[in-house]
Fold this protein.
Amino acid sequence: MNWKAILRHETILAILVVLALVVLAAQSDRFFTPENLLNQGRLMTEVGLVAIIMTFVIATGGIDLSVGSILGLVAILIGVFWQNLGLPLEAAIGLGLVVGTLAGLFNGFIITRFGVPPLIATLATLALYRGLAEGISEARSVRGYPDWFYVLGQGQVLGVPTQLWILGLVAILAAIVLGLTSWGRATYAIGSNETAARFSGIRVDRVKMAIYAASGFAASLAAVIFVSRVSTTRSDMGTGLELDAITAVVLGGTSIFGGRGTIIGTVLGLIMVQALKNGLSLAGVRGDGTIVLIGAVLILTILISNLFHRDGNR
Amino acid sequence: QQVYTGGDDLPTNPLACDGTPGTATPMDYDGGTPTNAPDRAGQTLTVVDVPKLVGIGYFAATTQGIMEAAAELNMNATTDGPTRANIDDQITLIDNYITSGVDGILFAANDPVAIAPVLRRALEAGINVVGYDANSEPDARQWFVNQAEFNGIGKAMIDQLAAEIGEDGAFAIVTSTFTTPNQARWISEMAAYQAECYPNMRWLETVEAQEDNILSFNQANTLINKYGDELDGIAGMTSVATPAAADAVTQAGQCGNIAVVGLATPNAMRPYIEADCVKSAVLWNPIDLGYAAAYVLRAAADGTLNPGDTSVEAGRLGELQVINGSEVLLGAPFVFTADNIADFDF
Amino acid sequence: MTAEAQTLGRREQSWFGRLFAGYGQEIIILGAILLLFVVVWSINPRFISPNNLNTIFSGNAYIAVAAIGMSMVIITGNIDVSVGALIGVLATIAGTIAVSGYPVWVAWTAPILIGIAVNFLVGVLVAYARIPSIVVTLGMLSILRGGLISVTGGAWISNLPPEFLLAQQRPLGIPAPIYFMVGLTILAAFWMRYSAFGRSIYAVGGNPEAARAAGIPIERRIVQVFMIHGAFAGLATILFATQLQVIQSTVPPNLELTVITASVIGGVSILGGSGTVIGSTLAAILFAAIGSALIFVGISAYWLRAVIGLLILATVLADMARRRQAK
Amino acid sequence: MGGCRARFGALPGERRARSPTRQACLHDEEQGVTPGGRDAASPLIRLKGVSKAFAGIRVVKDVDFDVRPGEVHALMGENGAGKSTLIKIIAGVHPHDGGTIEIGGEPVSHLTPREARRRGVAVVYQELLLFPELTVAENVFLGHAPRTGWRGLDWPEMRRRTRALLDSLDSPDLDVDTKVGALSVANRQRVEIAKALSQDARVLIMDEPTAALAEADVVRLMAVVKRLRERGVGIIYVSHRLPEIFELADRVTVLRDGALIGTRPIGEVTAQSLVAMMVGREIDHLYPKSEIAPGETLLEVRNLSHGRKVRDISFALRRGEILGVAGLVGSGRTELALTLFGITPASSGEILVSGKPVRIGSPRDARAHGIAYVPEDRGLQGLVKPMTIAQNVSMASLERVRRGIMMRFAEETRRAAAAIKAIGIRARGPGQVVGQLSGGNQQKVVLAKWLETAPQILIMDEPTRGIDVGAKAEIHQLMTKLAGEGMGIIMISSELPEVLGMSDRVLVINNGQLVRTLERGEATAESVGAAMADARREEAA
Ligand SMILES: Nc1ncnc2c1ncn2[C@@H]1O[C@H](COP(=O)(O)OP(=O)(O)OP(=O)(O)O)[C@@H](O)[C@H]1O
Ligand SMILES: Nc1ncnc2c1ncn2[C@@H]1O[C@H](COP(=O)(O)OP(=O)(O)OP(=O)(O)O)[C@@H](O)[C@H]1O
Ligand SMILES: [Mg+2]
Ligand SMILES: [Mg+2]
């Protein structure tokens, strides 16, 4: 094992995360308590779900800016299906997940079928899906869901917030798929050289469509959890989510040019951001100061990582 | 074409046209209570103020009022809000402050329902919770300081418009977004009151302009261009939209032809009022609002304001009335005109 | 010329063909704008009244100016998602200077200089530290947005001296922002076509390795382009901050995405190496025209954003179809 | 100055009268030198003890090298010998680690591409360093465009001079306003050459300029090179094609594993001795073709069409046969391969594999029917360069190295190691990143990838482009072996000797159509060339 493998980005990030946790714990004795940490897990689930699938998207050299809008659209649709169409809530959720996945699939479709660069395609659907959410909802929010529904966003299972189980499950599945299966291999191959992947008989378009659909699904799942957590739907839900998710992914070492990235890295990136938000707040730093620090940490982490990889081929 | 007249389905309650105060039906206290709150009477309180967002003039003014009161009341207050009017960021922030163990939370909700669970958690943790400006579900906080009742704003706005454009004038509205609860309620009440009291007034259009001053300016301009002489007045529903609309009217050379009324702070409106392009602006004093909120929080923490009370003492503001069970009313909306605007600086 | 060449005959493009090949996307957008004007005009003739044209053309002038710099950055193969926050910071600085009694030209030049300085830092991190630009500017977005609020506490700036309000001037009855937008666009377009430096931007974005081999100092060029972008952000700030008599310390939400959208809809390839600033300016005008048209046509504002999204999608797909045809 | 032009025939692309004509007649004072002179002139470039290491691995070791005015100095060596690296050192692209470089007699310590250009060094890079989004004219003049009176770029002049340059390269059909991204590899190569010529350089370096060119273009290029030599330009010429070397070169320098083996006047070497210097051993025959008796029909194509480049083509491929496909660049050979392979599925016509009609709509379909394709553009279509050899080798046969959907990494590595051994890829191991390999070894990786799918039909597009003699012979041997094992091979090549040497039958494609099919016996340089040229006239008509 050579020193470069040891000093991969993820290792550096892990060291930084531990460092941050130690420093933050020293700042406030309320930080490193199981209760607080689990609660933070609850708060980061929506971004986390989206970021984990975004890792795949970015690893193929793409990007999905429409996730926040899909979240908003699905949230609205669940409300509308349930309240205005009178469907049972379970069916409304199911249908919402289907529509969200289709929204992601549509992204994949215009990207693969028409060759529109992902950034542009999803920039357009960012506006489109948000607009649909606003139009469909006519600015009305839907409230008063049955109690069982809140278990998802506000309840616990075995002392751990319900959604954290989901996040954990999705993270583990995603890590396996990306790291250990032939689908993961295809993802990396497409991100490194799409043409060569196509010439090797990899079904590039299909893989990409599946990944964008999965991204839509993740955003929809996040929508369900979000609605359950805040007990209401609004058409502006999830605004700006895409940038938070992308921050976590690139902080985790996924190359924005594609071909490189891991789920572990993304999870570490998520933990880093959430720990900073929470720990700094507990240490008495205000929200705007925290944002400044997160920005600086993002740049510095990648900078440090780059220093170690100076002559590697990153 | 469908004219937007407030987005929600909640019932409206227009005031009488001649101004006879509505008969307030007394209500039982419907707020929440902190569980096992320690005795905080006379203690130094650590309080956090979480407005809808930071970075806009309005909430800078409420903060100012809170700080003023905090100095009088032995409170350490900090303001910390999201940088975007975003329900999730606001919830996360409050959550962190619950963990850090504050004594009291002041909030202005981005969404009444979304914020409720976290506020309930605060109450459970024995924290005193008081809202201002934008309410949450009643049981998720103890008290809410209401700057002006929705129907009061609706009446003041429409009355001002009628006075300037006549009872058969035509007007349009520039608001932030249709999803903003306060604006939606105000617009609903305006529509109800106008239908009741000035049935001949014409409501042309409502446009969205977010909290974006250039967009507000453009939207107001477009309204002027679209309706030409037909347009007699523009109502601005936010402290961003109103001055922008006034600027649009000024730059279009339509001062005197198109009236601008709306919610706005006096500093922002001063140039237009002094130039006699705008006659009036409607608002409560946001500094007073913050000030009152801090006093209510102190009183709730000290146990001097309890469910069932009908008024509360608020420093330089004197006695404030309790309405609707668990709301403290700041007073009637205030109308700034050329005569009094020089007296205010916020 | 050899005899063979003459017998074979050339497949040279005509003057018009070259124009179309070089400016395809720009022509599509121009067509879209004209179509919109004709359709809305037929519904409500006031749409093309001089006043409304002024509103449309000046309404997004600051976005168009910011998009000029953004286009250059994108042409080098980079991106900047922090420009909105930067404009907010610069506006506050300009306003603070203006009300502190300095001469107005100081208040006007400061945002340009500070824009250059901030983006110099961004450029160095991108070019020399080799951090992808989206990462640097994502971080910068946080830093600027949070920093602005930390410093101002959200206070507004009012009582601006009247002479500061450049964007409210109307020489010859035309709003000043239109002069800025048109003038800067033409200047930038010329410069990018006819100067060696301007062309080298395309080279850097089109094929960095080849650009290096051609003797273009890539790192320095990227830093320079970011600095130019900063200067345009400063110019955009002046238009943004002097339009009204108060300056807010927030900027329109998602301003950076609007600026990027204007660039890419205007035909700047997100992959770098191609595009012009004429397209981005036309796109900014198109957005303003759509916003205005929706009011004139009376489309329920609930559906406004959906319509904009659809239009963007349509433009993008039309562009793709055109490119396909060209092949 | 007029004399200078008259005497050597002005090349187009020279600066206009308004701009200084310094460089056009730069070599006036050197005209005492006999063109092609060996000893007289002082070298334009001299390297002494130059070394270069990448990540600690030395790829150029202590090399002495020089170029004199008016000579063509050929640089030879196997793939990965360090030729391109040496060239990039001279061009300032790679900083060197040790030794000294003198240009025009002056030592230069810190050489950058800009500095090298300024000192009159122009380079045609092996990997075609062009700007796909810019036009031909702009690519040619990027960095030294003609200027107008007010220092702006003079576009009309730029286009005019590009036109003239392309005409001199006999490329009249190449439009100066097309984007380079839309051009074929061969046309890009022409643009790259025009670009180097436009610089009026004192030293012209050409790294495998003919790799992508067809025979006729090669002839034209050689004429241009000769003209430049007469004008006193010093030329460094890299090619794996021995005939070109013997026709052009005045001196030859051979590198092996980064070390200098020797520099010889061309008269003192033979093909055999050169090859021996390069590979360090003798190579018996270049085209190790064994006679075979073709078996049953593997592939039959009937009236296949796609677009304008594949028109109504019918042929059959038999087991054990190597079917050569000849044709001019742009005649549609690659398009035929892409259609057979499912990248651009056929719009009409029939494909029969082992007698059964099949539909090939994607590379996956092709693979399912035992068809493999080694593409012409290795870097773009063949390899995922940042990935390892093992990952590349398994890329087309992932189902062999997985259980369910889970990858079996150990199995993958094992298979790759086996392939490295079987095909003779020179690499550190299956874990080495493919981008670090030399061209020939990269090509072998692509081949290994497709052999993993156990194909029956192997389509090879320019299988030995840019590959050294040693590796070339190895690949040819491999082809013979595979054919011997019963595979049917379709070999597309622009190198006529290769087509003639390796094929059992030769198809000649012209303008998207199959114009002739020649048996091994009747296929000669003349007959095939005539069929190709015939095509040309038809096209022109
Ligand atoms: N940028 C690089 N980083 C690491 N190794 C490199 C790099 N460029 C070249 N090499 C290595 O240097 C050696 C020499 O490569 P070079 O390209 O000079 O060979 P070449 O003689 O031009 O071969 P070919 O005939 O295939 O073009 C090879 O082993 C190659 O793997
Ligand atoms: N045609 C071109 N296309 C792209 N880039 C060019 C072109 N010509 C020059 N450049 C690059 O543009 C930069 C600025 O061009 P400028 O006109 O200043 O070059 P110059 O005439 O060589 O002047 P100087 O040597 O003083 O820099 C140079 O760094 C050069 O590398
Ligand atoms: Mg080479
Ligand atoms: Mg070919």
About this structure: Chain C touches chain B at residues 44, 46-47, 49, 51-52, 55, 59-60, 62, 145-146, 148-149, 152-156, 158-159, 168, 240, 243-246, 248-253, 288, 291-292, 295-296, 298, 300-302, 304 (CB under 8 Å). Residues D 333-334, 376, 461 surround magnesium ion (ligand 4) (CB under 6 Å). Chain C has a mean pLDDT of 84.
